[in-house]
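Internal ticket #5521
Category: modeling
Description: The requester needs a full-assembly model to guide mutagenesis choices. All entity lines are attached below as received. Residue total reported by intake: 927.
Assigned to: D.W.
Attached entities:
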Amino acid sequence: MEHFLGFAIPGIPYGCTYSIMAVGLVLTYQATGVFNFAYGAQAYVSAFIFTLLIQNEHLPIWLAFLIAVVILGPGLGLVFDRFLFRKISNTNTVAKLVVGIALFVGIPAILSIIFGSANQYNTPSVLFNPDVVYFRVADTPINGIYLSTVVTTAVILVALLALMRLTNLGLQMRGAVESRRLISLDGVNAGRVVATAWAISGLMAGLAGVLLAPIYGQLQFSDYAALMVAAFAAAAWAVLRSMPIAALVGILMGVTVTVLQGYLPVSSVWSSAALTSLPFVVLLAALLLVRGLRSVDQTKDPLSSVDPPTPPTTATLRAPTMDKNIRRSYYVLLAVFAVSMLTWMPKTWESVFNNALVYAVIFLSITLITGMGGQLSLAQATLAGVGAVTAAQLASHLGLNFLVGGLVGAIVAGAVAVVIAFASVRLRGLGLALMTIAAALFFDNAVFPQEAIGTGGYDLKSSWIGLGLHDANGHAFFILVMVVLVICVLGVMQVQKGTLGRFLGAMRGSDTAAAGLGINLTWQHVVIFALAGVVAGIGGTLLSIQQASASPELFNYQFSLVFVVVVVTTGVSTVEGAIQAGFGYIVLQQLITYLPARWGGNNLVILFFAFGALTYAAHPEGILEYQKRKWTLRAERIIYRSKPDGGPAPGGGAVLPDPSPTPTPAVHDHG
Amino acid sequence: MVERSPLLEVREVRKAFGGIAAISDVSLHVGEGEIVGLVGPNGAGKTTLFNCVCGQIRPDGGHVLLEGRELLGMPTYKRARLGVGRTYQRVEIFPDMSVADHLLVALRARDRTGRLWKDLCNMSAPTEDERRRVNACLELVGIADRAESAVSALGLGSCRLVELARALVAEPVLLLADEPSSGLDVHETAELAEVLKMLHRERGMAMLLVEHDLGMVSDVVDRAVVMDLGAVIAEGTFDEVMAMPSVRHAYLGLSA
């Protein structure tokens, strides 16, 4: 028993770190109805600024704490509420998640741009001296860091439970998350209540960030991101409702990790794979077993029945004239581009454009899942990686040509996507997003690092590919990528206007009505996942050829998040959105290299797209697509107004909603 | 009253939410080609019963049979393919689609003619037969001139007609219409009643109609079932049930 306790007790402080974050997530969800994907980023900001103020500005700890936690923490929460989430309180879960993901990738980028990418070290402990062993439990020394973590968790949990259960503010917060319109009718200032909730949540995030920082010698965002996954798992078991359960699951996870570490042989596969993937396994288990999660993000607002239906995205109802104009301009651009690539294009830019085309293929998979399926998959980079690694395996072990292996890899990626789809068959919105990120992290931590499948990845050999295709700057590779992209684009467009596209459009509009018509939702869900997996797998193989490496590092989960942010900015509903995303993402990265390094490099690109994605709720067709449509309509109006007979109506006479996001007020039910 | 062989049989179906019984031991039947009105005050459990019949919620007990075949345990889409059509209390439309596309989706879901390989080979354009059936249905409900309009640009009345046409195009054997006149004006309601009567007359379609507009119900139905607080409290012709003290009490709070 003492042996067991010796392993278990050190796990409690680790578990407490999971718990603090999980309780914060539950609080935010309970009080605001938003699953705050950026919670870890908020915690990191406070920890970063706290450490910076002490290490660089030599401020006393109390003053740094005041600025980083008491002022900055709630301040960030209020900013999120005032400028982002308040405007999208009645939108769907996917839109809220996209905004959270944009903040998740954008916040660290902002910090790097402003303060540089130098790491911060040795954040001081706020409560207890980390070098002092205060007492021992079952022979385990409890130092200041462990003690402050446990004490803080206990204090925070009690304080929050008291706030939510015993105070009038807590009652109003619970009311606001059900229906802020309804509590407004009761005379409560719902806006202020929700803003207070965001401020408290921000304070919690800041507090958690600063208290956890001393545990990590070096302050890195990746640690906070990893912590968030464990927090997702704990919060999922609590169905985003119960703070005590979230805290308990967090602590149990911490204890399980240290106990397993103690009992399993150090060199076994289990200790390397199972331990690192424990939070993802726990998250996966919650998503599969906790029934409440299936409907957790369904609206409970009693007034939602008087809401008009969601307005259509402008991209799906684009005027025929504009469609024609855009198509024509694309043909011209394509011809000019192809000729340029094959004649005068400098090698550097040929490589850049080849890279852009490859990313466009990968991004098409997001067009399928999110644009057509209306769901958020955070595992598309992983599926691309599955395709690439499979091709590399087949080339390395069986001597199969990399391109043929790539096709097999695409099928394997499709099969993995089918498994994910079946595992998430009852999940939509938030549940599905969590399931896909759990799958991505599982691959990152437990599958890709396995020695049997390449560990650090493969360096591609030219003999694997042949036909001169290994030269990423060459014409042969350009022709290959163009052919693949055109095939994928045509395929996606055919699916979009075919029966599957129509069925998916029906499901986006109303799952209930779609099933009521005889559409098998599960089958459509699986098919679209499979197609997206295949396309991502093809893109992954091309990316490996282009980078001359099939390294899993090219495909980790953070890329999946960035990909989503990039594509929703340019337009997730159309194939041209994916192509624009590919070019925007890569060409901007190239252009940034011409700027001084202090401008932030790639972080500036990520920030650019993160800002774009923040507008997703207002413009689900993509801010670029929205602007394009707006300016084309203006141009049409000017052209036709100048004609004596007035010409046809702008928009080609099609019945189009106003480009503004205001919902159509005509359709609502009084019953 | 003409006795018809039962098309839909609901036997002692019950459903509770969080310990509160929404419907308790409800039994009713709809004969072939019969229009049955399901009426009752708000909260009587009418929509819950519809959801149990369609499969959108799973009852805690009882049986739902269509042409003698047990529907419980069968997913919603399979019930729809057996011929259960439905319109909804709150309009459920597909905002990204045109009116005609709504009907095309319903047709293909019912006929199961959609195939991925057809999509990829550009063979999924609407066929002549599909266009004809879609247009016929739109003409039937009187919105053929709006076939290519974006559904989100229509008013509530037109949306209800789109929903109705979408349900009808698949030629269901039983139509569950949940408050189809909700949000319509008097004129539109009268037109809707005419459409329902014509469907009954020409297609012999059976219907279970939930409706608060009792004038419309009396005009359309063969028989009425009255629910209150999750239970059936009366059954018979419309005039018979409206004369029953228990119904008057449920609706008006008048003592029996």
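Resolution: model delivered.
Comment from assignee: Chain A has three domains: 2-257, 357-621, 630-655.
Ticket closed.
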